[in-house]
Design brief:
The structure is a single chain. The protein is α/β, with parallel strands linked by helices and 334 residues long. The protein has 9 helices and 8 strands. Strand 5, helix 3 and strand 6 form a beta-alpha-beta unit. Helix 4 packs antiparallel against helix 7. The radius of gyration is 19 Å and the shape is globular. Pfam families: Hydrolase_4.
Length: 334
């Protein structure tokens, strides 16, 4: 089955960036659902090509984009991960914009729509859910505003639960540095505050990014990618702190529609999810005060980037099964 990869651009809500986007699909095939991918910090959407192609083989349409300050959405490579202090608001709105753009460009009206977010992307998807993206769950999309129809479900990959005091401290520190040195300033101290605990979670690490993958070759692929691993600016860290604090309320689930399906997947050795404990805490919060259907899968021996782990097909299979259940289909043999 030949998979088309169409690239296009659309204007960001920041009023200045043209965002690079990609759609994966089989021409002439009516998709049974759409999966919109949202990538993590300091990476880009092309890294999801294998996963996207797998989903297309399963009869899905897949789309995603490079966030502001990331990947091919940046004109100059030295501007990678230089983000304004309100970048989280822009990135969340850009997810909605892509949904409208892709719906119109590829005639996707009325097709069940799922959001998939990894790492920072998972926090952005959680923000979308809290801000009403799931409202109108299971309603048919309307032509004028496809986002008004809600979502069919959401997949949170490599997410975590940041304690509120830590988010507040991170925002205050990043804001102080941004005011003193500018939002584009890269602070090693701030970077260590933001991600240093992840690096130190892996004893005798070979690189600063061993926490991403249990397979050294997977780590090396990330390190050798010039669009990955770039230090976030002070403005970017301020935005991340604000985002994580906003979505970590213990009763966030009360805003979700009854029965709304959420799949949470993470490595059991992922420090971002506190080796599963943070993932379970998020699941409890999402279930609290609602009847949301939250399924959790933790993968022993896997770290943060479970889609790039040697046993990533285990993850693919679980995603397939969950999608089949939500869509009311039994297509495992396709």
């Amino acid at each position: 089955m030949d998979v088309n990869r169409d690239t296009f651009s659309f204007p960001s809500s920041d009023k200045s960036s043209a965002l690079h986007a990609c759609a994966w699909y089989v021409p002439g095939q009516a998709p049974r659902a759409v999966i919109q991918l949202t990538h993590g910090m300091s990476e880009h959407i092309a890294r999801y090509d294998d996963f996207a192609c797998h989903l297309v083989q399963r009869g899905l349409f897949v789309c995603g984009h490079d966030h502001i300050g990331h990947g091919k959405s940046v004109a100059l490579i030295d501007r990678l991960c230089c983000l304004p202090c309100d970048a989280d608001v822009c990135m969340e709105e850009d997810i909605n914009i892509l949904r409208r753009e892709a719906t119109a460009r590829f005639s996707l009206e009325g097709i069940p729509w799922f959001l998939f977010g990894h790492s920072m992307g998972s926090y952005l998807v959680r923000a979308c859910l809290l801000d009403g993206a799931a409202d109108g769950y299971r309603q048919r999309a309307c032509d004028t505003d496809p986002c008004a129809a809600g979502l069919a479900g959401a997949i949170l990959c490599g997410t975590g639960q940041v304690p509120k005091p830590l988010s507040i401290a991170g925002v205050a520190l990043a804001q102080l540095i941004a005011r003193a040195r500018g939002a584009d300033y890269r602070s090693a101290f701030l970077d260590d505050f933001g991600t240093g605990t992840f690096e130190r979670a892996v004893p005798e690490n070979r690189t600063s990014f061993d926490w991403l993958n249990s397979d050294p070759s997977g780590v090396d692929a990330y390190v050798s990618d010039e669009l990955c691993g770039v230090m976030f600016s002070a403005g970017g860290y301020r935005a991340i702190g604000h985002l994580t604090g906003r979505v970590s309320a213990p009763d966030c689930g009360k805003l979700l529609p009854n029965g709304f399906p959420i799949l949470m997947i993470a490595g059991a050795d992922d420090p971002v999810g506190n080796r599963g404990r943070g993932v379970q805490a998020v699941a409890r919060a999402l279930r609290a005060g609602s009847q949301a259907q939250v399924d959790v899968h933790l993968y022993p021996g896997m770290r943060h980037e479970i889609l790039n782990e040697p046993r990533h097909t285990d993850v693919y299979d679980d995603v397939d099964r969950w999608l089949d259940e939500v869509l009311g289909e039994n297509t495992q043999e396709k």
